[in-house]
Amino acid sequence: MAVTAGQLAPQEVQLWQASLQRDAATVQIFETLLSEDELKRAKRFLSPVHQRRFIVARGILRTLLGRYLVCEPRALKFLYAEHGKPYIEDTDLNFNVSHSDEMAVYAFTRQAEIGVDIEKVETVFKAALAKRFFSNDEYEMLTALFGDQQERGFYRVWARKEAIIKGLGEGLHIPLDSFSVSLEVMQQLKFSENIWHLQSFTVDPAYEAAFALSTPPKKISQMIFE
Questions:
Q1: CA angle at 117 for the pair 106 and 25, rounded to the nearest 5°
Q2: β-strand 78-80 against 207-213: which pairing, if any?
Q3: Is the entire prediction scored with pTM above 0.90?
Q4: Where are the extended beta strands (E) located within the chain?
Q5: Contact assessment for residue 138 and residue 180, using Cβ atoms and an 8 Å cutoff
Q6: At residue 81, does pLDDT exceed 90?
Q7: How far apart are CA 104 and CA 93, in angstroms?
Q8: DSSP string, 70-131
Q9: Residue 6: per-residue pLDDT
Q10: CA atoms in the 13 A half-sphere facing the CB of 200
């Protein structure tokens, strides 16, 4: 029988945000939660900053999963789908994580597929990237904007598209320009036989974030991991 996450009702989404800026003692605590494979992945980063961000992001993920599944964070064993999406065996809890610069976001739900993404907003409109990776409709939508709206719009589109890709679990096997997202807060998109719910959410003024769910959510909660 599958283990259920008692704090979550079916079709409920819980979103967490967390700063990756932690003192050395806290980083060491998170490091003790990681598996040998995760520690090897951390060491592949040449930059100490990137190592620290990975360790903290993964340590927080394990801590949150431990709360939902009522188990020791260190004991969790991640499995990976064909295109790299992580999951835990024998539970109906689904989750996804994303981090950019010094901020991470986590999404949890039951009995549905979920993806989440966060992007640090830079004060530049990357027109060449938009032209190359976005759909024609998205590119035209962005080039019709000006100034801050155009810059933020680029990262909103990017976060929304990545959330969908991560939710589907297909990686780059689904080209980013093969579907279009809007700048609206909420949107529905059809993939195969499923209607996906796509929604932007506020984390910090310096970031754009979004989640995608394979069914309409009945409840959405946002929390901060201290």
A1: 45
A2: unpaired
A3: yes
A4: 12-19, 78-80, 86-88, 93-100, 103-110, 114-120, 186-191, 194-201, 207-213, 219-225
A5: yes
A6: no
A7: 19
A8: TS-GGG--EEE-TTS-EEETTB-EEEEEEEETTEEEEEEEESS-EEEEEEEPPSS--HHHHH
A9: 64
A10: 20
